[in-house]
Structures are given as structure tokens and as C-alpha cells.
Amino acid sequence: MEGDVMDKVEATGTVHDFDPMSGSIPATKVEITVSCRDLLDRDTFSKSDPRKFSFGRTEVIDNTLNPDFVRKYILDYFFEEKQNLRFDVYDIDSKSPDLGKHDFLGQVHCTLGEIVGSPASRLEKPLGGIPGKKCGTIILSAEELGNCRDYATMQFCANKLDKKDFFGKSDPFMVFYRSNEDGTFTICHKTEVVKSTLNPVWQPFSIPVRALCNGDYERTIKVEVYDWDRDGSHDFIGEFTTSYKELCRGQSQLNVYEVVNAKKKIKKKRYINSGTVICWFASLTLTLLVLKGNPSQSTSLHYMNPYQMNAYAMALKAVGEIIQDYDSDKMFPALGFGAKLPPDGRVSHEFPLNGNVENPYCNGMEGILEAYHQSLKTVQLYGPTNFAPVVNHVARYAAAVQDGSQYFVLLIITDGVISDMAQTKEAIVNAAKLPMSIIIVGVGQAEFDAMVELDGDDIRISSRGKLAERDIVQFVPFRDYMDRTGNHVLSMARLAKDVLAEIPDQLISYMKSKTIKPNPVPPAYSTNHKQC
């Protein structure tokens, strides 16, 4: 009989209702990583399979008494408050959500401050709760999260990995770890298992950059490669190290990594490596930003009319349906700014429309529109309207990938109000040397003089006496494309055509400025993946 081990976490503390008129001071967000060692073995014919709860279920780890959980707890940390935590560990023997039907493996109490205040913010405590039994140990690590909201989309393949299975080829998977200040590593991602091959191609995946390296592009990332075994005793193939900055170089000889098994290297004089891993990294990132208004009033540009789309939704759909064809997975981070957020009324200029801080990606245009409409029901739209933070946000991401493998497009839909014109001009001038473009669609009847100035078609935008290296901004007023006959399909097609007209030339101008030439056409990809 096989089972699943679950770690259930309950945090007790004061919960504040959201009062949009008075927000509390934002807390520091910390990420808690959980590991266990030497758990009780409650399964007769196999080891326990760990799983944990944190206000909802996390992943199952099969057949191990020493689990390292990938999914994290992200908690608000208040230095001045005592925040009690309780960790319960269970061995799950079925799919039932009732904990009473599963084997209890142990429990520990602590405070969030106790974890944060431990040496290197790493707390190790014995599990208890079962009289006369040694229940093993739980290890809790905390790291303060940075403000980085970027996401990395990556794909890897491998070539000529070591054969580990006696009766067949290996079943490879990879485990990613970010380095900590004390020299230890924290698990942050596992790929899927690719069965029966020494030349696997893993599926593309997206991961928050702060989970991968907490926004530090030069922080060491360790990657281990294993051969999957059903009993949980996965065979170590080898490992390599890299950094997010290196991974951003995309597909090239610089992103081919030797997978090295240190023990084999010591034993065998002629040992070279246990295979190679290649990073493929090329995607167009589109960040969508929706601005303010009062959706409950029919006079608002955000008003949700049950019979027709509002101007924001129409502009999103018109432009997004064209540009999404240039993104491989059709997953887009969609953000809003200028709103008070629950639960504390904090004003944000960069919040996920889907409400998921850890994964703001939406599936295609339908997912974006659904998230947009849902956000109007949960946030209080609020000024001021600052453009510079979001321009700088995308610019930081683009700055890490200047080899031509990626190009970034920022779409801003606005009513024309801007509260930080000088800062925005400076941000655009700085961004003009990076692989990015900015599209601005103005909705409503306001004057858009500021947006026209940012466009820079007549006079190249400048800041502090410095001219922008390239023209990267395209502005169009939505009202110019409203068809009086009601033919929205035709008018939105004209809008998309005009708003995207300058993107190809802007992309080419960047490539020429960096003397980047197109990559050669790749050779045909064989069915046995030997081209990796």
C-alpha cells in the first residue's frame, strides 16, 4: 500500500477586514520553505509519500521519509507581533480530504519570528505529538522576498545522459535550487519526468524570478539531474550551476552545460561528463496594464455593460488578439495599477488582475478579459496614476536579455491622466536602449497631449538633456477608431493595425543598434531528439 505524506500548516493571528479608507502599513513578505528528515514510516510496503497543506494542498512527494517540498508558504511578517504557527505532518493513504482518514506523523509549534530570528533564518525542530515515538525533524527556512515581479519562461533539453536503468534507458527529470547566503540551497522547481530516453526534451515552464533567485540575476542556481525510480530512490546523474543572467542568454553555445557527477569524476580518470543540458530561452513577453475609473457608475470607462464591452475591454481584445500570435504559450502577465487592494487598502501601481501575486499570468485574451472583469469587483480603483514604475519594471526584465533572443512589448491602456510625467520620460529614455516597445491606447474623451509627447513622433522624447536612442512609444486615441455605423470588428481591426504598425521597425532598429544578426535556420529536428 502506498501513501502520501502531508504537512498541514495552521497560522493563528489577527485578521483585519479591508477598509478602503484606512490601510495599515504593508508587512514584509517572507517565504517559508519546509523540509522533513527521518519521518515515521507508516506504510507497510513502501515509504511514506510526503504532502503538505498551507491554506490549501500542495504537492505529493512519493515514497520518501526525507521530503524537500517545492511549494512555499508566503506569509506577512510583522516584527512587532507574535505570529503563532503549527505544522502537522500526515501520511496520506487516499484522496480523501478528511485528515482523520490519514496517518498522523507528527507536529511542531513555533512562531514566525522564531524562524526569521534563527541563524541564517533556518529553524530545525523535532516533531512530536506521538507518545513514545521519535517522529523525525522538520526544517523551516525563511527568506524575505524582494519586490521583483518578473517571470522567467524557460525550456531545457539534454543530450547523451548516463544510462541508469538496467533494463532500459533513464527516465530523467531536473531539480532547480537557488543559493542562500549561508551557502545552502533551497529547492524551487522540479521538471516533469521524461520516460525512457537519454536525450529528453522537457516542457517549457514559467517561474517567478524571485522564486528562482529572489530578483538577484547573478545569484547561483544549482540544477541536479536524476533518473526517476518508482520506489523514490531516484538515481543521481549529475549537476551543474548557472545564474538567471546566464540563462537569459538564450539558445547558444554559452548555454550548454556539462552535467557532472563528482563521485564518478574522482573514480574514473577518463570521465568527462554524464551528458549535457541545453537551455532554450526565447519568448516575447507582453505585459498588459489597465488603469483607473469607477466601474459601478455608467459614466465610467470601466463600466461593465451586460450588452457590450467597455472601451478598455475592446482595446485589450483588439490589440491583444493580434500580438498574442507572437507568443508561444499564449500566457500573459496582466497587471493593473492605481488601486487600493484588499485586505488592508494598500495603494498599488502594479497588481495582478487575477489576484495571484505569485502567478499573474492569464491564458490568452479570454483569460485576460476574465481577470480584468473579476478585478473590478475586488479592488477600489484609486489615484495617482504613475507610469514610471511599470515602464521601469519591464525595462529591468529587458535589461537582462539584450542578446536579441527576446523582445518585450508593454501595452498600456489609459484615460490619459499621468501623475509622474518627468519620471516617465526618464524611464522611457533609459528603456530606449533596451529590447522593448511601449504601446499606449488612450480611452475616453480627455485631451491626450501628454501621451502625444511621450509618443515622440514629432519631437524625440528627452530627459535631463538626453535624447532617447530610439523611438519606442506608439500612441493612438481609441476614439478615433469608433465606427459610427457600429461596425466594431472593422474599427478594431484598424486600431490593431495602426497601434502595431511601428513594432517591426522598432525591433529591427534595436537589433541593428546592437549589431545582432538573425540566427541561422536550425537543422531539422529528429524524432529521437539527437539534435539537442
**Could you give the distance between the termini?**
39 Å
- Helix proportion range: 10-25%
Low-confidence stretches: 1-26, 51-56, 524-532
Main sheet characteristics: 7 strands, mixed
Estimated structural class = alpha+beta
The outline comes out as: globular
Mean pLDDT across all amino acids: 79
Count of helical stretches: 11
In total, how many beta strands? 29
How many whole angstroms does the radius of gyration measure? 26 Å
Strand content: 25-35%
Multimeric organization: single chain
Organism: Amphiprion ocellaris
GO molecular function, one term: calcium-dependent phospholipid binding
Protein name: C2 domain-containing protein
Domain C2: 9-127, 134-257
Question: Could you walk me through the main structural features you see in this protein, from its secondary elements to its overall organization?
Answer:
By secondary structure, the protein is an alpha+beta fold. The longest helix is centred in the middle third of the chain and has 13 residues, at 311-323. The strands form 7 sheets. Strands 18, 19, 22, 23, 25, 26 and 29 form a 7-stranded mixed sheet that branches. Strands 4-3-1-6-7 form a 5-stranded mixed sheet. The protein has a 4-stranded antiparallel sheet with strand order 5-2-9-8. It has 11 helices and 29 strands. It is globular and about 80 Å long. Helix 5 (311-323) packs antiparallel against helix 6 (364-375) and helix 5 (311-323) packs across helix 10 (488-499).
